[in-house]
Specification:
By secondary structure, this protein is an alpha/beta fold. The protein has eleven helices and twelve strands. Helix 1 (about 30-40) packs parallel to helix 3 and helix 9 (about 200-210) packs parallel to helix 11.
């Protein structure tokens, strides 16, 4: 199982939000490059980078910060936030990003997802961000009328192999994870699922590790490693055991 340290970018800074609320922001670093190097030095094998400004406006906005991270680290990174066109995807992949994460566009333009998979293969993953069982779009600011299961089945049919599933109600809350939610999505969709939202302590990593055999292949960790409630090195050691 892979542990993905999260680097959320807003205005070129490394921040964390609570439940995706832009008015509830904590700035953790003015230097995302240094943060990326820190997580790499603690054993991270893959970084999860989100362009929060991009998610809000609908096109990548933090390319300079992403370039600096790519230049600094040797490990792969995945990037999401505001990626809505094939050109956006190609631009990021050409920069050296390993995987691009599609979010709102998967709801609003599912044909584009199928085209992206044909062109870029498994370098395309889809992030499903859910509130009360329904998919949220546009930087989590809007709830759609599409259910998580409905979207998951559509994108898997389009060829997507990996889903990043975020429980918005838990994101940034340090409230603990519900591992069965992620396992159920993996089993019902047939996709590999990366879990996101709510990680508080090593016990949450242990809980997700227990459903690895159900198809939950990774866990994104954010506020817990920034606040110190979770030691990243210990989490990685447990995940890789």
């Amino acid at each position: 199982m892979i542990i993905f340290p999260a680097i959320d970018l807003r205005g070129g800074k490394c921040v964390r939000l609570i439940q995706g609320d832009f008015d509830k922001e904590t700035v953790y670093s003015d230097d995302p490059q240094a943060t990326a190097l820190k997580w790499q030095s603690m054993g991270a094998k893959f970084l999860h980078v989100v362009d929060l400004d991009g998610a809000k406006v609908g096109s990548p906005q933090n390319l300079d910060a992403i370039k600096k991270i790519l230049d600094a680290v040797e490990i792969p990174i995945e990037v999401g936030g505001g990626i809505r066109t094939l050109d956006d995807m190609e631009q990021l992949l050409t920069l050296g990003v390993r995987r691009v994460i599609l979010g709102s566009v998967a709801v609003e333009n599912p044909k584009l997802v199928a085209e992206a998979v044909k062109r870029f293969g498994d370098r395309v993953v889809v992030g499903i961000d859910a509130r009360n069982g329904y998919v949220a779009v546009h930087g989590w600011g809007t709830s759609s009328n599409v259910t998580v299961d409905e979207l998951a089945k559509k994108i898997v049919a389009a060829g997507v192999k990996t889903i990043i599933f975020t429980d918005i109600s838990k994101d940034g809350m340090l409230s603990g994870v519900n591992a069965s939610t992620f396992a159920e999505l993996a089993k019902s969709s047939g996709a590999e699922v990366v879990a996101s939202g709510g990680v508080r302590s090593i016990e949450d990593i242990r809980a997700i590790k227990a459903v690895e055999s159900d198809g939950v292949v990774g866990m994104i960790v954010g506020k817990a490693i920034y606040s110190g409630s979770l030691d990243l090195s210990a989490a990685i050691e447990l995940a890789e055991d």
